[in-house]
Structures are given as structure tokens and as C-alpha cells.
């Protein structure tokens, strides 16, 4: 079921089903000439009944057997995020009530000094909530919910939000694809059309990566018949030669665990082990679409962690792009190997102002934070504060977790410079981040976001309907917008 936004010339609309915004202090006289006396009385009774409510509320009054009047009660000042959540809630309401065609009277029609709402954010929230992935269903329910709107101001305001929607949904599409379709070869191809948006896309294939010495990344993918890639995406939104911001993503298109094989139960979910890379791609697309005045680079490592006669073995030692050697004690701790080369490569080549990486890196972060927060690890307090604040504003929350030199000894190897797991046990997410920090060679401000609990949801959230969430795109877009543009 999809959502379509239609802009109408008439202020009242001729569609039978209508939605109006009201406030507790709305006077019944405001409705004269819009509804008949019986409907006016029903609205008044509703307002009296809910005079003590503390939360926004949505309800439906029937005009007739085939007509609905949906009331959206505003009881507080609604910022952009609250407006988005209310729009998402409204979409869920009309969907469950099978209202497929509705005229939404803009909130300015019954404006109140005590409650406000961003109408453009309201519609944006409904669009975010309406996403569904049904590409492979042979019998599709092609029902469309039509939001019919007369509001000149919303058009310009919504144009600023549409790039975010496009970026989030592109991320969701990538994460939702099955592993047999979106393998590394196909993934790399899907990034090439981004060039049309003015993004410079460079693909480093297996041959180029081998020449560069990216053996940590290549080791993860060597068991697959598919290729392994590092893809960079550069958006230069300013003529200034300022250092770019860098975003790096883990793109393990399917993760069997390798010879350290995962249990069969829920292994099918490992198609979303590339969600960190998808968030980076969605972010770069968003910034390009909205012509962000900033220089940014995205880098994604694309591999497939499979079992074969050529797969990496536990106990193998590889030399990373940084020159540091890694003993691979567990082939299921593969994401950090991909990121190790991607981080060092990005830092050396682009010399960024800062780096943020995203990865579905550890199950341990889900044990710690569930599906409410992503884990934030950073070597820089200012960067951490900026990310935390951006996350709160878009409801993609982060919780800062510790890094400390004492954790390093848990990753030291007797046979190489380091090992890829903590053999003692405990602090699984922190030691993984501590491992990554070793590949930041020039003291670049860096943050690692472990999004394992946030990238995919078995149940619906405030702004998503379950499945791939697109987590990270809105967070990082807000981070860039408020701090670096």
C-alpha cells in the first residue's frame, strides 16, 4: 500500500473524507460554513470529552455511512520530530480504517496560539511510515492512499524534505534486498548511477585492492564466487578546498560467519549485514539531492562472507592496508576486518576533517542497548556531542560507550600485531571498537556507530513499518546540516 500526495487548488476540497486539525481552545464558530450543525456539535462534544488529555489524539467521526471526518487533536507545541511522528500515526490510522482518499485541511485553517505543527513535517512523517518492500510479491496489493492537500507553503517546505525521504528509502531498498540479488557485484553496479547526481563514484575491485594491500577486506570475501570491492563516493558541494567529512560503511552483503559458522536460526537476517554501507550511500544521495554546501566522501567495503574451499580459516594471519598484521581467530568477526582497511584507506587518501563509520558490528550491542539506541564510540568529545544531539532531534538515538587503552591488551595477539576477537570474553562491542581505533593512524576525530540493533526491526517503529529502518541517514544528515554547512 503506497501513499500519494496530491496538491489541490480548492481550499475546501471536494473529496468526501476529510481530516482537520483542532485544538482544545478551538471555538465552534470556526467551523461555521464548513460542516453542518450536527457535525459541529460532535466536534464540540469531542473537545469537551478530551479537555484534560495531554497527548495528541486522532479519532474519526462519520459524516454518513460512506464519509469520514478525521479529527487530529493538537494539545501541545509540536516540533519537527513530533510533527513527523504525528503524520506517521495519521497514516497508520487511515490505513487501518481503509480510508484511501482524504482531503487534509491545513492546520493554519484552525490555528491556535497554544499548539503548533509543521505541516510539511507531518506529511514527511506519513511518507516515511508508508514505506514497504514488496518487489518480489507476485500478487501485489496496489491500493494507494491519496492525501489531498491545499497548502501553497507546504510545497516549498516539502521540497527540502524530499531528498531525505529519497535517501532513507534508497537505504531501505538496499537493506531489504535478498543476498542472492544484492551480492557485492550487483551492489557496486547500483552505485554507479549516483554519478548522475554529480557524485564522483570510484570502484576498487579485487585486483586494485590486492595491489593496494587491502588484505584484511579481501580475506573476508575470498570464500565467495563474487567479487570484493571498496567504493568511494565524493560529493563536492562547495568550491572551497576544505577537508571533507568522511563516512565509512560495512557492506557484508551476506554473512554466514565463514568457518566460524553462525547458527541456522535467523541466519536469513544476515542479508542486512550491509546496513552500515547502505546508510552511507543513502546519506551521500541525500546530500547530493539537496545540494548540500559541504565536501563529503563516503566509502563502503562490499564483500560476502561465505564458506568454501578457498575461504579464510580461523588462525589465518593477514596484513592490512595500514601495514599492521591481524590474526583471524574468528571468521565471524569479519566486519571489523572490512572496516579496518576502509578506514585507513579513507584517512590516507582523503585526509578528512573527521570520520564516522557505521556497521552492524556486534550482537553484544543489542544485549547492551536493545533496539532503542545505537552504540557510539569515539576518540573525540566534540564529535560525540554533535552526533548525540543530532540523534535526539530525529529520534535516531545514540548512547556513548567507553573506549580505554586497557581494553587494547584483550586484542593483542601472540602471533601478530593484533587479533580480531577478545578471547577473554565480555566487552564485545567495546573491544571491537577498540580494534577499529587502531586503524585511525593520524589522530583524525573519529566515531564508530554500532547499529546492529537499529538497522532492521521485526516490529514497526514510530517512523517505519517494520523491516529495514534506514537508520543513520536522517541522523547524519542532521549532523552535517547543523554543524558543518
Describe the structure.
With 485 residues, the protein is an alpha/beta fold. The protein folds into two domains: 2-150, Leucine Aminopeptidase, subunit E, domain 1 (3-Layer(aba) Sandwich), CATH 3.40.220.10; 162-483, Aminopeptidase. It contains 13 helices and 19 strands. The strands form four sheets. An eight-stranded mixed sheet has the order 7-8-10-9-13-17-14-15, with helices on both faces. A six-stranded mixed sheet has the order 1-6-5-2-4-3, sandwiched between helices. Strand 14, helix 11 (381-394) and strand 15 form a beta-alpha-beta unit. The longest helix is centred in the middle third of the chain and has 25 residues, at 152-176. The two termini are 37 Å apart. The model has no long low-confidence stretch (mean pLDDT 93).
Taken together, the total number of domains comes to: 2
CATH class wording of the largest domain: Alpha Beta
Straight-line distance between termini: 37 Å
* Spatial order of strands in the largest sheet: 7-8-10-9-13-17-14-15
The third-level CATH topology of the largest domain is Aminopeptidase
- Give me the count of strands: 19
Based on the coordinates given, report the CATH architecture of the largest domain.
3-Layer(aba) Sandwich
Largest sheet: 8 strands, mixed
C-alpha Rg, in Å? 25 Å
The total of helices stands at 13
Helical fraction: 25-40%
Q: Can you give the mean pLDDT?
A: 93
Strand content: 15-25%
Outline: elongated
Any idea what the CATH superfamily of the largest domain is called? Zn peptidases
Residue stretches low in confidence (pLDDT < 50, at least 5 long) are none
Amino acid at each position: 500500500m503506497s501513499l500519494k500526495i496530491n496538491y489541490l487548488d480548492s481550499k475546501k476540497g471536494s473529496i468526501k473524507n476529510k481530516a482537520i486539525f483542532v485544538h482544545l481552545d478551538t471555538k465552534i464558530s470556526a467551523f461555521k460554513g464548513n460542516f453542518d450543525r450536527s457535525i459541529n456539535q460532535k466536534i464540540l462534544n469531542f473537545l469537551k470529552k478530551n479537555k484534560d488529555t495531554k497527548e495528541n489524539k486522532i479519532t474519526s467521526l462519520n459524516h454518513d455511512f460512506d464519509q469520514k471526518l478525521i479529527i487530529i487533536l493538537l494539545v501541545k507545541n509540536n516540533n519537527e520530530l513530533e510533527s513527523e511522528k504525528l503524520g506517521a500515526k495519521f497514516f497508520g490510522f487511515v490505513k487501518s480504517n481503509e480510508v484511501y482518499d482524504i482531503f487534509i485541511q491545513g492546520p493554519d485553517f484552525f490555528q491556535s496560539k497554544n499548539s503548533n505543527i509543521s505541516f510539511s513535517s507531518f506529511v514527511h512523517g506519513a511518507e516515511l511510515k508508508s514505506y514497504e518492500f514488496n518487489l518480489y510479491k507476485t500478487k501485489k496489493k496496489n491500493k494507494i492512499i491519496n492525501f489531498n492537500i491545499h497548502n501553497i507553503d507546504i510545497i516549498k517546505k516539502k521540497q527540502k524534505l524530499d531528498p531525505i525521504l529519497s535517501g532513507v528509502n534508497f537505504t531501505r531498498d538496499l537493506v531489504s534486498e535478498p543476498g542472492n540479488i544484492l551480492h557485492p557485484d550487483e551492489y557496486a553496479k547500483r552505485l554507479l548511477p549516483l554519478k548522475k547526481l554529480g557524485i564522483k563514484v570510484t570502484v576498487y575491485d579485487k585486483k586494485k585492492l590486492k595491489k593496494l594491500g587491502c588484505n584484511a577486506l579481501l580475506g573476508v570475501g575470498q570464500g565467495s564466487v563474487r567479487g570484493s570491492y571498496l567504493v568511494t563516493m565524493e560529493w563536492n558541494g562547495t568550491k572551497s578546498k576544505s577537508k571533507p567529512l568522511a563516512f565509512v560503511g560495512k557492506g557484508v552483503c551476506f554473512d554466514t560467519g565463514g568457518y566460524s559458522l553462525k547458527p541456522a536460526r535467523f541466519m536469513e537476517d544476515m542479508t542486512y549485514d550491509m546496513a552500515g554501507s547502505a546508510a552511507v550511500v543513502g546519506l551521500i544521495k541525500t546530500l547530493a539531492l539537496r545540494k548540500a554546501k559541504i565536501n563529503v566522501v563516503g566509502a563502503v567495503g562490499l564483500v560476502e562472507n561465505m564458506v568454501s574451499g578457498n575461504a579464510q580459516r580461523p588462525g589465518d594471519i593477514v596484513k592490512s592496508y595500514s601495514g599492521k598484521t591481524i590474526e583471524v581467530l574468528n571468521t565471524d568477526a569479519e566486519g571489523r576486518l572490512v572496516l579496518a582497511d576502509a578506514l585507513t584507506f579513507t584517512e590516507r587518501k582523503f585526509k578528512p576533517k573527521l570520520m564516522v563509520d557505521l556497521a552492524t558490528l556486534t550482537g553484544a550491542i543489542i544485549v547492551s542497548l536493545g533496539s532503542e539506541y545505537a552504540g557510539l564510540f569515539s576518540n573525540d568529545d566534540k564529535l560525540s556531542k554533535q552526533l548525540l544531539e543530532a540523534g535526539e532531534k530525529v529520534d535516531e538515538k545514540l548512547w556513548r560507550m567507553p573506549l580505554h587503552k586497557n581494553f587494547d591488551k584483550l586484542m593483542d595477539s601472540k602471533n601478530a600485531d593484533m587479533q580480531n576477537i577478545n578471547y577473554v570474553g565480555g566487552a564485545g562491542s567495546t573491544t571491537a571498537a577498540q580494534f577499529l581505533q587502531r586503524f585511525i593512524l593520524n589522530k583524525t576525530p573519529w566515531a564508530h556507530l554500532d547499529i546492529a540493533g537499529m538497522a532492521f526491526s521485526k516490529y514497526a517503529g514510530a517512523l517505519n513499518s517494520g523491516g529495514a529502518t534506514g537508520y543513520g541517514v536522517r541522523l547524519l544528515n542532521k549532523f552535517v546540516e547543523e554543524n558543518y554547512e
